[in-house]
């Protein structure tokens, strides 16, 4: 499962035969999050003619959650070309929304397809991408005396500490790359115990 994800939101603008195409790309992890961005842009650009979009949640080569919408443009001329760009570039966990202001000159089906694909590509050209890393949350059970060492090991593996509970022992809830869980267990063998089922 090797694909790229978007680090931060980007925008790009194209003018084609007096029509303005404003492309926005956002990192997303759910359809609900993706649709939230579509609705925000509908409010922000309330006078625009179309809000066409495509998203991919997860692996773009083996996706179970992808969607697109032509939003009133002729079928297949907007959402599908945007989705094709994302799949071709192997970018997952992303939505691209293209806001269109009609300039009075009809582009035709081929022209629209090229315009929306070009807008999506312009957004991709602005992107800072990073490889997708599967994350997992685990719990570490430690003694009070070894808590600091456990924190050090988690941070050395670029993990984050989400929660700490104190009772007879210390329970640290942490998030780190799935690939680093075994290393975490090995490095904590003396200082704490990783619970397999948090």
UniProtKB/TrEMBL annotation:
Transmembrane segments: none annotated. InterPro entries: EFG_III/V (IPR035647), Impact (IPR023582), Impact_N (IPR001498), Impact_N_sf (IPR036956), Impact_YigZ-like (IPR015796), Ribosomal_Su5_D2-typ_SF (IPR020568), UPF0029_Impact_C (IPR015269), UPF0029_Impact_CS (IPR020569). Residues 143-189 form the UPF0029 domain. Residues 17-124 form the Impact N-terminal domain. Belongs to the IMPACT family. This is YigZ family protein. It comes from Psychrobacter glaciei. The lineage of its organism: Bacteria, Pseudomonadati, Pseudomonadota, Gammaproteobacteria, Moraxellales.
């Amino acid at each position: 499962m090797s694909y790229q994800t978007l680090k931060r939101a980007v925008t790009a603008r194209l003018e084609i035969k007096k029509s303005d195409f404003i492309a926005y790309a956002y990192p997303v992890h759910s359809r609900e999050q993706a649709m939230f961005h579509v609705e925000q842009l509908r409010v922000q650009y309330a006078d625009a003619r179309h809000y066409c979009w495509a998203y991919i949640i997860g692996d773009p080569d083996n996706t179970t959650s992808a969607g697109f919408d032509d939003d009133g443009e002729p079928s297949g001329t907007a959402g599908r070309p945007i989705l094709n760009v994302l799949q071709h570039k192997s970018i997952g966990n992303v939505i691209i929304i293209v806001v269109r202001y009609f300039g009075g000159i009809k582009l035709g089906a081929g022209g629209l397809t090229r315009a929306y694909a070009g807008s999506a590509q312009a957004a991709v050209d602005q992107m800072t991408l990073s490889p997708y890393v599967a994350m997992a949350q685990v719990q570490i059970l430690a003694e009070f005396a070894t808590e600091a060492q456990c924190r050090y090991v988690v941070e050395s593996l670029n993990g984050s500490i989400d929660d700490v509970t104190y009772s007879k022992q210390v329970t640290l809830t942490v998030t780190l790359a799935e690939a680093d869980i075994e290393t975490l267990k090995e490095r904590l063998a003396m200082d704490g115990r990783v619970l397999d089922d948090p």
